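Hey, I was hoping to borrow your eyes for a little while. I've dropped the whole record in just underneath, so have a look:

——
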Amino acid sequence: MEWLEQWRANCMERTLAGLDWLAGRRGRKLHLAAHLATGIQGEDVAYFYLLRKGFRVVARRWSAGNLPGDVDLIAWRGSLLCFIEVKTRSARDMTPAEVAVDAHKRATLRRLASRYVRQLPQETAPEVRFDVISVYLVAGQKDCVHFENAFGWSERWSGRD
């Protein structure tokens, strides 16, 4: 069955790329600032990466409405609920992309995750994990680095950030 999921993800990715190309040819492509377009492209890459790894993505760019911020991707891996922050770079700088997930962003993700879990119809809260995916879009190549369990529900002050 795994090969079927791989094939499905590949077909979906190629279809999306074809539709984007067609929209560009017809002059209907969204005109976004370069950094926003790069971020969306990185989220798409991370989405298909997760599908190929067996995750079931249930939300993209989820926000609580009255809380600031959003969660890039929310996915299930079996009974484990994963909140995923995607950081995209168009160059491999000295500083890795995942470093941009600072204490403020981690606190925002925790707050949003708490709200999301509370709205689930389950009696008990599922096990939760916070992941970071760094996506590098360099010279036409797409490279993902997945940091599983990058941080937890609580954080001891370490003097950094």
In short: The radius of gyration is 17 Å. DSSP finds three helices and five strands in the chain.
